[in-house]
Amino acid sequence: MAPAELPDRARVVIIGGGIIGCSVAYHLAHMGWKDVVLLERDQLTCGTTWHAAGLIVSFGSFSETSTRMRVYTRELYDRLEAETGQATGFKATGFIEVASEPDRLEEYRRVSAFNRRCGVDVHEISPAEVAELFPLARTDDVLAGFYVEDDGRANPVDVTMALAKGARMQGARIVEGTPVVDVLHHGGRVTGVRTEQGDIECEYVVNCAGMWARQLGARSGVNIPLQSAEHYYLITERIPKLGPSWPVLEDPGSYGYFREEVGGLMLGLFEPVCAPWKVEGVPDDFSFGSLPPDWDRMTPYLEKAMARVPISMETGVKKFFCGPESFTPDLQPIVGEAPELANYFVAAGMNSIGILTGGGLGRLLAHWIIEGEPDVDVTGFDIARLHPYQANPDYRRTRTVESLGMVYQCHYPTRSLQTARGAKRSALHDRLVARRAHFRDVSGWEAPDWYAPPGALPEIGQLSWGRQHWFPYWAAEHRAAREGVIVMDMSFMAKFRVQGREAGTFLEQLSANRVDGEPGMITYTQWLNRRGTLEADLTVTKLDDGDYLVVASDTAHGHVAAWMKRHLGDAHAFVGDVTSGYAQLNVQGPRSRELLQAVTSADLSNEAFPFRCAREIDLGFARVLCIRITYLGELGYELYIPTEQAVHVYERLVAAGERVGLVHAGLEALASLRLEKAYRDYGHDIDNTDTVLEAGLGFAVAVDKPGGFIGRDAVLAQKAAGPLRKRLLQLLVTDPEPLMFHGEVVYRDGVSCGYVRAASYGHTLGGAVGLAMIEADEPIKAAWIDAGDWTIDIAGSRYPARASLRPLYDPRMERVRS
Ligand SMILES: Cc1cc2nc3c(=O)[nH]c(=O)nc-3n(C[C@H](O)[C@H](O)[C@H](O)COP(=O)(O)OP(=O)(O)OC[C@H]3O[C@@H](n4cnc5c(N)ncnc54)[C@H](O)[C@@H]3O)c2cc1C
After folding, report:
1. What's the mean pLDDT in 363-369?
2. Helix (H, G, I), strand (E, B) or coil at 540
3. 792 has which bridge partners?
């Protein structure tokens, strides 16, 4: 294709003309940024988009952001033709998800209640109704279907062309036949792009290069660890009975989806064990390409899928198709501003749902670029969550085998990814193995989730939505923390040393709380953006003047590092990532002082070592930083130990622990303990869309501190605006039986008003406990809460609950300060 003449400069250059690049261009132009150029290497849609099956499905995700993006996408594709005159092929044929196993039925009942709350009109239907809507499906083993009348299908090429046309109509330029060979940057900021036809100077770059995004990013030092993999469908010869208006049928239990395609049946597959493609790199000239199918590998899955629509076994196959699609290590897209380079945005790694989320993702990214912040929860999507080692060929090759199949697995809440394990282990790993820890993947770390008692094996067994065999082990760990003392290996926490003459003022600027007071104090604080919503939730410990320790959760690691880097400017302050330098052991519970006092000469009495005190103490042959703080609501200490002394300290603690009944506890216990105390967890129950006041963290805001902080004006403005109508509440189900995980819809007086963002089982409170963001038309105050009749939908049944603004466990902090 003859390249068109390029402009010298543009405000935004988008790289890649698949569905995502065109959607970003469309939305930027619609939102008023018209000085946009999209550069496509070859022709629009020539990468992955051209061969997508075009399923447009809003049902099935436990993420509010993803669900709302799907609903928006469907609505956009429905109206694009009227706007642009370009057909999209969108047809609201309907969509049915079938459940033929009890656990899937439970999952879909849970997710359908949540999806309805997010605007999806989904209904459970009987097997007979499934048969009526899709008469060629076998339904004798079906337990139920979940039907969305407004969902359906679209033509991915036509939709992309319509988005491109809509973008052009608003003033954006789209240039085909122009590969970007490099992104130019200076001083840590994007300055332009290089093509064979010349450079374009620009302020922003958006890498929408699909499965090429990793290679392109690597040229600028930007980490985008996605990997392409084989993805299959076939199309049969004509089946006379099959109608074009039949709904899309999806049956994850048999790995298949089905829809009509030019009179035949399209049968698509999500096999549980899949095949990465071109780990070494996707060829630069791969266009409108397909891959040689490996039908030997696929036959068992295909046979199972065909059994759902038996006529497919007797009908000839017109087309076998295998094409590549990008997958990410955690099956979430890679979105946002690269931590490595300012104004370098990424939207890639679509995990087989780029068409059905593409409209929403383009809108989200355009908003993020224009406003400087996203307007939806992006904590699960943020590019900063990913780590450089995840781009290693061996890691990608290993993890991707599992990724595609995860789409159709039953999404049990305690499922942990099984591939590419053991990438990061704490210094105590082998000791904890010997203690029968069951590990789960925590940002690549092997972290103990629970411990099997002597004589039992730490095996997960059959996953379930109900109580699992290890429930009593977990309950015992929980009780030990409330009544005795536990030790927890938290070495995966993100730790930063911030030092320098202006380190204190720098951290004060970021922190809503006062963090630069007396040395030897830990402070719990949030970092806000200018809108006053949360960017981070962490602790800052002042070790000395000009010397601070910042500790955040593992999932926030990259974002916290990036936030500091972006705000550092010329300050005399230096940030060092010391995560690997310190092991972290948390010793918690009413007998924790007694235990620690037995292994140190430091005076740990309440007077000498009060709550929030941080001091270096002797412990055996080691010097450790001991901080009196808790994340589970008891008297407790966090020990930061030089990694090489971790085993020694651990051995001393365990030896002394014999006299006080020290118990090893895992992350399940951490979750149940902290949720009883209503302690927050960023990225789980609070996120970037919540203000610090809505999150119930106003107590940690020092509005009057000298010099202010980022977001202070927004906090003051929200305070001045009067009582809040959106607030995080703690909820306790009064029936001890049901379990909550995430997404359970909350009702006040029968009216849906929010959903549970994070939940666990409160072994002390005696029921499922969680945190839910509640929205109402009137002020949310204690009296309004107490006057309400609260219920929660759990897997289709309503259960009474208690709601509270104050923690239901130890609201007066007596245990913490004891
Ligand atoms: C068999 C199959 C079935 C699928 N079915 C569905 C479905 O039913 N529903 C659904 O939602 N999704 C489906 N998908 C997934 C969907 O196709 C993808 O998620 C989506 O197309 C990804 O879009 P993209 O824009 O990110 O990537 P692409 O479409 O690959 O676009 C990236 C573009 O970037 C260009 N590019 C790369 N490097 C450069 C460079 N250096 N300079 C300039 N341009 C560059 C490429 O040429 C390419 O056109 C399916 C995928 C497969 C394989």
Report:
1. 98
2. strand
3. 746, 799
Instruction: Give nearest CA residue, ligand 1 atom 26.
Output: 210
CA distance 182 to 341: 14
Does residue 2 have a pLDDT over 70?
A: no
Return the closest-CA partner of residue 347 out of 220, 159, 209, 192. Answer: 209
The minimum-distance atom of ligand 1 relative to the CA of 39 is 43
The stretch 84-104 carries a mean pLDDT of 97
Task: Tell which one of 48, 228, 259 to mutate to probe ligand 1, the residue whose CB is within 8 A of the most ligand atoms.
Answer: 48
CA distances, 185 to each of 12, 194, 337, 344 (Å): 14, 11, 14, 9
Residue closest via CA to ligand 1's atom 21 equals 49
Decide: residue 398, CB within 10 A, 0-12 exposed, 13-18 middle, 19+ buried.
middle
Tens digits of residue pLDDT in 655-698: 999 999 999 999 999 999 999 999 999 999 999 999 999 999 99
Strands 36-39, 173-175: parallel, antiparallel or unpaired by DSSP? parallel
Q: Residue with structure tokens 């930083």?
A: 625
Q: What residue ranges line ligand 1, CB within 6 angstroms?
A: 15-21, 39-42, 46-49, 51-55, 179-180, 208-212, 216, 231, 233, 323, 325, 348, 350, 352-356
Distance 16 CA to ligand 1 centre (A): 9
End-to-end C-alpha distance for the chain, whole angstroms: 75
- Ligand 1 centre to CA of 206 (Å) is 15
CB distance 146 to 122 below 8 Å = yes
Rounded Cα distance between 46 and 42, Å, is 7
Query: By C-alpha distance, which of 169, 165, 171, 215 is closest to 41?
Result: 215
- DSSP track, 662-730: -EE--HHHHHHHHHHTT---BTTTB-TTSBTTTTT-GGG--TTSTT--TTHHHHHHHHHT-S-SEEEEE
pLDDT in tens, 180-202: 999 999 999 999 999 999 999 99
Distance CA 432, CA 448 (A): 8
Pairing of strands 574-577, 494-499: antiparallel
Write the CA distances from 536 to 492, 675, 679, integer angstroms. 17, 19, 14
The answer, yes or no, to whether residue 3 has pLDDT greater than 70, is: no
Cα–Cα distance, 270 to 250 (Å, whole number): 11
Measured at the CA of 77, the angle between CA 374 and CA 137, to 5 degrees, comes to: 115
In 456-516 the beta strands, taken as DSSP E runs, fall at: 486-489, 494-499
Alpha carbon of residue 585 to chain centroid: 26
Mean pLDDT for the chain? 97
Structure tokens at 79: 């109206």
By the 8 A CB rule, do 791 and 800 touch? yes
Name the residue with the closest Cα to ligand 1, atom 38.
Answer: 209
Report which ligand 1 atom has the smallest distance to the Cα of 153.
8
pLDDT digits (tens, 9 = 90+) for 609-651: 999 999 999 999 999 999 999 999 999 999 999 999 999 999 9
